[in-house]
Design goal:
CATH architecture of the largest domain: 3-Layer(aba) Sandwich
Structural class: alpha/beta
Shape: globular
CATH topology of the largest domain: Trna Endonuclease, Chain: A, domain 1
Helix content: 25-40%
Low-confidence stretches: none
Number of domains: 2
Distance between the termini: 32 Å
């Protein structure tokens, strides 16, 4: 099972939500003395449903999940209502829900599983932040360019091939 299968399953489970793949944010917590440019933090998808924003991070292996840290999630945690990990059900079954024992940092994050039939199940609810910070202008601009490009693509307009800013 790969990340695309998981994201497709989430889209089918939430048809009333916009699930935007691979969105990046500048890490405002980065120590600027260590580098000239701030690093970016990518999530696998940003789901927008009504006024609620959910950052979705897909993990398909235990090794990948163990590499995740709060510091990597922090820029997204600040601007979304909730942060969830979406994992294959088989991976979740492998660890038996013992996140701490496997050194998985899931504090205040939700965990959704996806089975081989594409069924999504919430196995750990995320802490909901009722008033996250606004999305940074850089994220809003990226989403706007993607929407504009999608509209042009639907019309067959060749301007749709221009890159995001």
């Amino acid at each position: 099972m790969d990340a695309q299968f998981i994201l497709d399953a989430i889209r089918r489970a939430h048809p009333d939500a916009a699930v935007v793949p691979e969105v990046v944010i500048h890490d405002h917590l980065w120590d600027e003395r260590r580098a000239e440019a701030k690093p970016i933090r990518r999530i696998d998808a940003l789901m927008v449903r009504s006024l609620q924003r959910t950052a979705i991070e897909v993990k398909v292996s235990l090794a990948d999940w163990k590499r995740d840290t709060y510091r990597k999630r922090a820029p997204w945690v600040a601007v979304v209502n909730r942060f969830v990990f979406a994992v294959p059900k088989s991976l979740h079954d492998q660890i038996g829900g013992n996140y701490g024992m496997h050194q998985l940092d899931t504090w205040d994050c939700g965990v959704w599983t996806v089975d081989e039939n594409g069924r999504v199940e919430v196995v750990k609810k995320a802490k909901v932040r009722p008033h996250p910070e606004p999305l940074p202008q850089q994220v809003v601009q990226t989403l706007a360019f993607r929407a504009a490009r999608a509209a042009l693509t639907e019309k067959g307009d060749d301007r749709a091939t221009h890159g995001e800013r």
